[in-house]
Amino acid sequence: MANSYLKYLVKAYEIECNGKKITPKSLADELNVSRPTAFEYLQKFVSSGLAKKIGKVYKLTEKGMKEAKRIIRNHRVIETLLYRNGVELEEACQCASKIQEIVDDDIVEKIFVSIGCPKFCPHGRVIPDVSTGH
After folding, report:
1. How do residues 67-123 score in pLDDT, each as one tens digit?
2. Are residues 115 and 132 in the same domain?
3. Do residues 34 and 21 share a domain?
4. Left if phi > 0, otherwise alpha if psi is -120 to 50, otherwise beta: which for 121?
5. In the structure, what pLDDT confidence band is assigned to residue 24 with cuts at 50, 70 and 90?
6. Are 9 and 42 in contact (CB under 8 A)?
7. What's the whole-model pTM score?
């Protein structure tokens, strides 16, 4: 998956987790893009089974939620590793964004264990547990 595709998926996940409705407008506003661009990504999510459309609102499917959590977890684990090894926080975040989708999940799990199974990333955000759905 392309990095921008994942950025849209993660943002849709965040919108939904914050108790808001996922719409082309809400996604566009969050990402500072046009509504047609946001709509196009939402349609891609529907066609790939990551979301479903209910009226004018979109909801992530279980598959979509799982994929978003996986990407968030990968990002936050990699970012934590880099930061703990002396990389400036913003640089660690940017690097994690570049590689979060290409590192195998089993390698991320090994990194996670090796850094002590942290609950939070350096930004203070929860590192989701994809195995239990939390």
Report:
1. 999 999 999 999 999 999 999 999 999 999 999 988 999 999 999 999 999 999 999
2. yes
3. yes
4. beta
5. very high
6. no
7. 0.87
Q: Six-digit token pair at 118?
A: 């942290």
Token match 């703990």: residue?
A: 84
Q: Could you tell me if 54 and 84 are in contact, meaning their C-beta atoms sit under 8 angstroms apart?
A: no
What is the longest distance spanned by two Cα atoms in the chain? Answer: 48
Report the half-sphere exposure of 106 (CA within 13 A, side-chain side): 0
For residue 83, give its domain range: 62-134
CA distance 129 to 134: 5
Q: Are residues 24 and 78 in the same domain?
A: no
Work out the burial of residue 34: count CB atoms within 10 Å of its CB; fewer than 13 is exposed, 13-18 middle, 19 or more buried: exposed
- Judgement on whether residues 8 and 54 belong to the same structural domain of the protein: yes
